[in-house]
Amino acid sequence: MLHRYTERARRVIFQARVEVGRCGSTSLEPEHLLLGLLHVGDGLACRVLAYTVDSVEQLRREVAGRLPSGDPKPGNEEIPFSPSVTNVLRAAEQEADTQMQEAIGTEHLLLGLLRDGRSHVAQLLHAKGVSLEAVRQVVKASRANSDTPG
Fold first, then answer.
1. Is 20 helix (H, G, I), strand (E, B) or coil?
2. Average pLDDT, the chain
3. Measured distance CA(28)–CA(14) in Å, rounded
4. Secondary structure (DSSP) of 63-130
5. In the chain, N or C terminus with fewer CB closer than 10 Å?
């Protein structure tokens, strides 16, 4: 499933799974994916967020504060994607396809998170000034300067 993902994007998903285990959730949610993006800390998505939001650390605390806390899960336990994360990953793939990019990078994951305007993550990002169209424009401009996805 993740064969098109860049190494950074795969690290984001790996880190999101770590976040799930840390807070004891039963499935990987969009909040975990955003925490994974913030944890990896490089790639185009993080550069966009660092440029747009006042404080990446404050964003991290707000997202982490939205997660339920439970008993941590062992690292070897299989953690399923929630339906909303499955939709985010599909949207990320569609964004890459629309941009005619073979690889799915962190920027596509961010776009996927923003596409579901009803999710808490999308609403929080919108409240912080991160919009779908603005991120698309930054990604497009970045592509004009480089062919390497984040």
1. helix
2. 87
3. 10
4. HHHHS---PPPPTTS--PBPHHHHHHHHHHHHHHHHTT-SSB-HHHHHHHHHH-TTSHHHHHHHHTT-
5. N
Residue 81 β-bridge partners: 28
pLDDT at 131 over 70: yes
Sequence-ordered list of residues with C-beta below 8 angstroms from that of 83, at least 6 positions apart, any chain: none
What is the torsion angle, in degrees rounded to the nearest 10, for the CA atoms of residue 10, residue 123, residue 87 and residue 140? -60
Residue 105: pLDDT band with limits 50, 70, 90: very high
Condensed to tens digits (0 to 9), the pLDDT of residues 56-103 reads 888 889 998 888 777 776 666 788 999 999 999 999 999 999 989 999
pTM (2 d.p.): 0.89
Q: Which residues contact 59 (CB under 8 A, 6 or more apart)?
A: 38, 49, 53, 124, 128
Cross-strand pairs, 28? 81
Token pair 């984040």 is at which residue? 150
